[in-house]
Specification:
eight-stranded mixed beta sheet; 19% strand; single chain; Aminopeptidase; alpha/beta
Amino acid sequence: MRNEYKIFENTKTALGNVIFLCGFSAEKNQDLAIGVVHGDEPQGEYLINRYLDEELKEGVLFIPCLNPDGKQNNTRVNSNGVDLNRNFPTKNWVKAEKDNYFGGNSPASEIETKFLINIIDKYEPKSIITLHTPYKVVNYDGPAKELAEKISEIINYPVEASIGYPTPGSFGTYAGVERHIPTITLEMDEEIAQERLYPPIKEIIDLL
């Protein structure tokens, strides 16, 4: 990571891994980019860390890896078996079966979820992008259609207002629908090399 970037917030997971927020400055109303919500989708951390190594971008905050325990275990869920993208305190949160989409025993029960909620409360991001795989779509929640269309032009994925299946307790619903923050869930191609994903992702972060 370039010396110009600083770590502003951090916390430890159940397995002792560190989640951190970094950027150029700790001001409010910046954009926020997040990697590895699901541990078996590690591409976002590589892409964000490469950007941090090579670029100097003001106005964007980064969480390179929200779910380091899941990444360590190569699982979608965290070390408690919770899908972080179903654990947010939304109006449609439900306690579901304990499978890969288990939203926890209660909303915002997880360290990782609490960390991200605290970041949003403290830094009030003006837009948020999370880097996922594998569906090759630009999914958006809240007032983010225009941003989604600009991202679509860069990466040549279609814009989708819905991912196509129910997502109770999702981050998009929490941040985009209920808090009215323009929120992008960028579903990238998992079948191509991370190095090939970097040029469009760099351009997208530059756009923010």
